[in-house]
Amino acid sequence: MITSTLRRVLLVAKHASFQSRCCVASSRVQYSTVYDSNEKTFDKILIANRGEIACRVMKTCKKMGIKTVAVHSDVDASAVHVKMADEAVCVGPAPTNKSYLNMDAIMDAIRKTGSQAVHPGYGFLSENKEFAKRLAAEDVVFIGPDTHAIHAMGDKIESKLLAKAANVNVIPGFDGVVEATRVILCSGGGGKGMRIAWNDDETREGFRLSSQEAASSFGDDRLLIEKFVDNPRHIEIQVLADKHGNALWLNERECSIQRRNQKVVEEAPSTFLDPETRRAMGEQAVQLAKAVHYSSAGTVEFLVDSNKNFYFLEMNTRLQVEHPITECITGLDLVQQMIRVAKGFPLLHKQEDIPINGWAIESRVYAEDPYKSFGLPSIGRLSQYQEPINLPKVRVDSGIQEGSDISIYYDPMISKLVTYGATRAEALQRMEAALDNYVIRGVTHNIPLLREIITHPRFISGDITTNFLPEEYPEGFKGHQLTSEGRRELVSTAAALYVSAQLRSQRFLVECSNEMTLWPPWQVEVDGVTVEVSGEWNLASALLPVTINRTPRFKVRVLSQLVSTLSAHMPEKVPEDTSSILRSPMPGSVVAVSVKPGDVVAEGQEICVIEAMKMQNSLIAAKAAKVRPMDTPPPPPPPPLHQPTLQHITTPPLH
C-alpha cells in the first residue's frame, strides 16, 4: 500500500545520460573512403561558416592533413569551431549581415591567412554566386560548383526551365487561375519564404512576408508562384559530379517529416520507393546535374505523390544538412569528395559501386519549444549537455558544448543525431535509445517531439507525408500523455524505490559498492491493482531502468529528499492575463509595424512582424481592440520565466 512517507520521494522520468564530453562533430564515423596522403589537395582551407557544419568540415580536413581557418563573429569567439581550427579570424559583430554574410571581411580573412580554398558549408554564402566570383577573381578555390551552376539552380524560375529542358518532371507553374498556390523565394533554400495561399488575402500577405524574408536572408526579393501539391512526400536525391563529366546519384533521403517547411527527421533510404522509381529519380537528378555542368556534391529535391509520380522541386548546390545519413548507407565521406572534386580529381567510383548498406535516421535536435507551433526558438545557456555517444552506431554532429549560448542571431540547431542499423527497425530502436539518453538543460529543446515522432505507429509503418505533424497533432504537440496505467507504474516504482532505499541504507556501511544490484521483485498494490516492480540500482548512475510485470518499461531519475522537501514550498505560478498585451513568443527584432496608436484592429489582424533566427513571423491581435496611445502605456506586467517579452516594440499593448 502507498503511505504518506512516499510524498518525500520525488521521481522524474528523464531522457538522460551522464557521460561528459566535449561536444564536436562526431569522429565515430565509419567511411569506406581511403584518405590518400599522397593525393595532394590544399594546404589550408577557410570554412566560411559556424557551428556543427564548420566542425564537420574540419574533421575531414584534419584526416586529409589540411590546415583549417575558422571565421567567427564577436559573440562566437569561444565557439567550438573556433577552438577546433588551426587559425581563427573575427569577421564582425553578431548579426549575420555584419559577419558570416560579410563578404569583404571574409575576403580579408582569406588574404590574411593565405587560405587556398573556401568551404562554405550550408546556408550563409554557400549558394551565393557573387561570393564564388570574388573567390575566383583572387585565385581562391570555391569548394562547390561553379558560378554558372549556382546561378542556374539558385534561381527557382530558371532552374525549373532548365529541368524541363533536361526532361526532368516539373510541377506546373503559374499559368492561370488555380485553387491553391505556393509562394516561393526565387533564391535560397532551407524552407524559408515558402507560403501556401488559398485566397487573395493570403496571396498578398504571402508576397509581402516572403519577399521580406528573401531580401533579408538572400538579398534577392523575387518570388515564384507554382501549383500547390497537397499531401506529398518530400524525397531528395544526393548527386556527386566532377569536372570531367562524371556524375553519380547516391540514393535518396526521405525528408517528409517537416514543420514550417523545414525538415525535422530524415532517413535513408525511403520506405516508399521501389527500385524502379529510385532509379528513375536518380537518373533524372544526374541528367539535371549534367545539363548545368555541375561539379561537386549537390541535392535534387522532388515532391512525390501517392502514385509515385515525382516532380522536381529545387536543386541545392551545396552540402545538405542531412548528408550524414547518405554517408552512413554508402560509406562515402561527402566532404572529402567535395574537396577532391574542387582540386580537379575525377571521381573514384562508378554508379554500380554505390550501395545501400543498412538504414540511417537523422533527428535534428533544436533549441525550440515543441509545444508551441511544433517548435518556436528558445535561447539560453546550456547548463548541462551530454551526448549519447556511448551507445553503438550513434553519430552526433554538433558545434556546441556545455556552457555554450544559444542566441537569437543564428539557427537554433543544437545537433544532428544520427543512428544506423542493418534494418530500419534497428536504426529506430537505436534512435529511441539515443534520444532517451541525451541530456540538454538550460534551454527548451525538441527531443520530446522527436521521440514522439519516431515511436508513432504511423511513422514506424512508413506511412508519412509532409502533412504528418498537422494531421497527427491538429491541436499542436501536447507531449506524452500519461495514462492511468502509467501513473500506477510510476507510483509503484516510487514505493519500491523507497522501500529498497530504506533496506539498502541499513547495510550500506558494510556493503558499500558501485556494482549494480537487482531489487527483489516488489508487489505493489495501487487502486486495487497489483504491479510487480524490479530493476537495477547503481550508485554510479542517477538513471534507474525499471521493469514492470517482467517487461522493461522506462528509466527514472531519483532526486534527493531535500529537493522533494523544497519543491513543496515552490509557489504555483498564476497564469498571467495577456488578453490585452501583444507579446512575442520569442525574442527578436521588429522589422515592420502595421498599426499606429488609436487604430481599431480586428481579431486576427497583423500588428507587427518580428524577425528571429532568420525567420519572419506576424504577431496578430488576439481580439478586437484599440491600440493605446503612446503617451499613456500601462505598466508592463513582469514576464514569467523563460517567456521573452518584446521590449523594444514601438507600438504599445492593445487596450
Outline:
By secondary structure, this protein is of the alpha+beta class.
List the SSEs and their pairings.
Layout: E1 11-12, E2 44-47, H1 51-63, E3 67-73, H2 80-84, E4 87-92, H3 103-113, E5 117-119, H4 129-137, E6 141-142, H5 147-154, H6 156-165, E7 181-185, E8 195-197, H7 200-218, E9 223-227, E10 233-241, E11 247-259, E12 262-268, H8 275-291, E13 296-304, E14 310-316, H9 323-330, H10 334-343, E15 359-366, E16 368-369, E17 376-377, E18 380-381, E19 384-386, E20 394-398, E21 405-406, E22 413-421, H11 424-436, E23 439-441, H12 447-454, H13 457-461, H14 468-472, H15 484-507, E24 517-518, E25 522-526, E26 529-537, E27 543-548, E28 551-558, H16 561-567, E29 589-593, E30 600-601, E31 606-612, E32 615-620, E33 625-626
Parallel strand pairs: 2-3, 2-5, 3-4, 5-6
Antiparallel strand pairs: 1-28, 7-8, 7-9, 10-11, 10-13, 11-12, 12-15, 13-14, 15-22, 16-17, 18-21, 19-23, 20-22, 24-26, 25-26, 26-27, 27-28, 29-31, 30-33, 31-32
Helix pairs in contact: 4-5, 11-12
